[in-house]
Design goal:
heterodimer, A: about 575 residues, Rossmann fold, 3 domains, nine-stranded mixed β-sheet, 18 helices, 25 strands, rod-shaped, B: about 120 residues, alpha+beta, Glutaredoxin, 4 strands
Chain lengths: ~575, ~120
């Protein structure tokens, strides 16, 4: 009756799943198990000592009460309720309060072989009675039996115990109780007493491994009948907020993508990316050799984020908060004010302080609480140093997935060693990166100069230029690319080349001026010669005119003289002619 | 509340030499309903007490079906369970008490009986 009612009630919310799930409320676990533990059935949680079995069970109960309004019962065989309450108080679980509110029932079952004498037939009806009483008194939907195997130490009749355990699981199932049974891991078997034989619905294995002195807890769903589940080993953590399971990879690549662009904090660098900067929500890798200005560039980005009024989380694995701020201040970036305005959050810790998973979880938590728009991690290469590449890749992949799913822009800083491997060292993460800016030193004429170029930037037309940049007291400034004789010049080589070119230009200018002057002189000379010729010509013309006039006046004189002579001679013969001429002259 | 003293009988200890009057054995038998095992246990217990106990004793039968909350106090898991509360230390015997020898060992009175017999 109860089972069917629950089934009907829940079926509507999860119509596609064949097996009903009871959400555990444990971070990440519901995700990898497709919704939680099988509702109304028994699950086994097994593992070695100290692997977190009890913690998982307790969190399942407490979250069940607090988040899913499902009261629970804990039957503890190893710890008293007082001990248990104290143990989980550090996780913020107040068991006493839940017990007083009648939402949780704690019962401690002590099995002490020394006190028990067996005489004849018996069964474990007492356990059933107590469980029934506990379930009834709070109306429990969830039950945790913390290491039921302890009863094997108290009773000698193993076949009877097995029959009773089988009966117990049947009993729990019949009542529709979602149950977690914890069990110690045996050598070569999942549980020491083979309990997994009786529970066929769900078996979860917890593991606690030490590698390079750093411990990592892992969880694996060995079996989950009727459910598609993640089969990997998932790292998990127990910290002040309980258990968190970290799914290795998110299920699908379906992040919402923003086409909004945000400034890099350096206008010149923005200009290299269509004048707009990074895409919002993209992952950016800044890699470069030591002292190439990576952190300064990251500070610029953080500063730019805060200027837009966005929240930025800066995680340092190398430098302390004060050191980063001081150094940023020395290049004219005041990060303190953003901290005061609660826009910038700087957290620094050593990469060796935790295992990979703890790092990831801590970052997750900071992101959950701060909810930043941008995250800077400086440098991720230090993480690489503390673990193997596969782990780092998996960590970064999960982290980037996580950030992308939330539309958070990620700026990762990586230190590269040596110039030869400058592009290969990050190959294991390059595929995760949208925009990759490489900073490098160029050695030339006895000095190192800083250069940057955009190795790749998905989805935008970006500059392919190798640009020199300098770090001034006003921050990073890109210098106009100086390209001559087929190569880029940097630093003083650039200055020298510039000077050389300037000198050559000056020389050319002088030559032109000289030529122009010469031409002017030529023209003037020509003009003066023309003037001289003209003057000569004019003089000659004048002289000629005078001569002509003189000649004309001589002719007139001669004619006059001839006429006068004729008149004086009175020449008759000339009378007939004379009147004509005279007449004509008179006329 | 408790189905107290269903059977509480004392046996005159005329033969007993050094037994003090206050030396009462308090026994509590936990059962769950009228199952064959429970009935057998009670019958066996009465028989053992009659035959072997030369002290005062008191038997209290608790039915956990009626009073489940009482199971917690004496940490009852197996049914039937016989608990010797007094004298200390507390001792527990589980099963239907069909094995008299073991029951006596469990109750720690075999020794007393044999010593009485030999004396």
């Amino acid at each position: 009756m109860r089972l069917s009612r629950i089934t009907n009630g829940r079926a509507r919310s999860v119509p596609l799943e064949g097996v009903e799930k009871a959400a555990t409320g444990i971070k990440g676990f519901d995700e990898i198990s497709g919704g939680g533990l099988p509702r109304g059935r028994t699950s086994i949680v097994c593992g070695g000592p100290g692997c977190g079995k009890t913690m998982l069970g307790l969190e399942f109960l407490v979250r069940g009460v607090e988040e899913y309004r499902e009261p629970g019962v804990l039957l503890a065989f190893e710890e008293t309720p007082e001990e248990m309450t104290k143990n989980v108080a550090s996780l913020g679980f107040d068991l006493n309060a839940l017990v007083q509110k009648k939402k949780l029932f704690l019962d401690y079952i002590r099995v002490e072989p020394a006190e028990i004498e067996e005489t004849g037939e018996y069964d474990l009806e007492g356990l059933f009675v107590r469980l029934q009483y506990a379930v009834d008194s709070v109306g429990a939907k969830r039950v945790v039996l913390d290491t039921i195997e302890s009863i094997f130490s108290g009773f000698s009749n193993e076949s009877l115990l097995r029959a009773e355990i089988r009966r117990l699981f049947r009993w729990l199932k019949d009542r529709g109780l979602t149950t977690v049974v914890t069990a110690e891991q045996g050598s070569g078997t999942l549980t020491r007493h083979g309990l997994e034989e009786y529970v066929s619905d769900c078996v979860i294995l917890l593991d606690h491994r030490i590698q390079d002195q750093i411990s990592t807890r892992r969880l694996r769903i060995v079996k989950y009948r009727g459910t598609r589940h993640g089969a990997d080993e998932y790292p998990f953590l127990i910290d002040e907020a309980g258990l968190s399971v970290l799914p290795l990879t998110s299920i699908a690549l379906n992040h919402k993508i923003s086409s909004q662009r945000i400034s890099t904090g350096i206008p010149d660098l923005d200009a290299m990316m269509q004048g707009k900067g990074y895409f919002r929500g993209s992952s950016v890798l800044l890699s470069g050799s030591a002292g190439s200005g990576k952190t300064t560039m990251a500070c610029h980005f953080a500063d730019a984020s805060c200027r837009r009024g966005e929240r930025c989380l800066y995680i340092g694995f190398e430098e302390s908060t004060d050191q980063v701020f001081r150094n940023a201040g020395s290049v004219g970036i005041d990060l303190h004010r953003w901290v005061k305005k609660e826009l910038l959050f700087h957290h620094a810790w050593r990469p060796t302080q935790y295992g990979m998973e703890m790092h990831l979880l801590r970052i997750h938590k900071l992101i959950e609480t701060i909810r930043p728009d941008a995250v800077v991690m400086d440098p991720i290469s230090n993480l690489i140093a503390s673990s193997n590449q596969r782990d780092v890749r998996s960590l970064l992949m999960r982290l980037i997935d996580f950030l992308k799913s939330r539309g958070i822009t990620a700026l990762l800083v990586a230190l590269t060693r040596g110039l030869d491997h400058i592009e290969t060292t990050e190959e294991h993460i390059s595929s995760l990166i949208d925009t990759w800016i490489l900073l490098r030193d160029i050695e030339q004429t006895g000095e190192r100069n800083r250069c940057l170029y955009i190795l790749k930037s998905r989805g935008m037309a970006h500059s392919n230029q190798l640009r020199e940049f300098v770090i001034t007291d006003k921050g990073i400034r890109l210098i106009h690319a100086y390209i001559g004789a087929g190569q880029v010049f940097t630093g003083s080589a650039r200055l020298t080349q510039e000077a050389k070119d300037n000198a050559a230009a000056l020389l050319r200018e002088q030559t032109i001026a000289q030529k122009q002057r010469e031409l002017g002189a030529k023209r003037r000379e020509l003009e003066s010669r023309i003037a001289a010729l003209r003057a000569e010509y004019e003089a000659q013309e004048k002289a000629m005119e005078v001569t002509i006039q003189q000649a004309q006046s001589v002719e007139q004189r001669l004619q006059l003289d001839a006429a006068e002579m004729a008149t004086s001679r009175h020449a008759e013969g000339k009378q007939s002619e004379g009147p004509h001429k005279t007449n004509g002259a008179e006329r | 509340m408790k189905s107290n003293g269903q059977k509480a009988r004392s046996k005159a200890q005329a033969k007993a030499g050094g037994g003090a009057d206050s030396d009462i054995i308090e026994l509590r038998l936990y059962v769950a309903g009228q199952t064959p095992k429970s009935l057998a246990a009670l019958a066996n217990l009465k028989r053992i007490c009659e035959e072997h106990l030369n002290q005062k004793y008191r038997i209290e039968v608790i039915d956990l079906v009626k009073h489940p909350q009482l199971a917690q106090g004496d940490q009852i898991l197996a049914i039937p369970t016989l608990v010797r509360r007094v004298p200390q230390p507390l001792r527990k015997i589980i099963g239907d008490l069909s094995n008299t020898e073991r029951a006596l060992v469990g109750l720690d009175i075999r020794q007393a009986h044999t010593s009485t017999a030999s004396a």
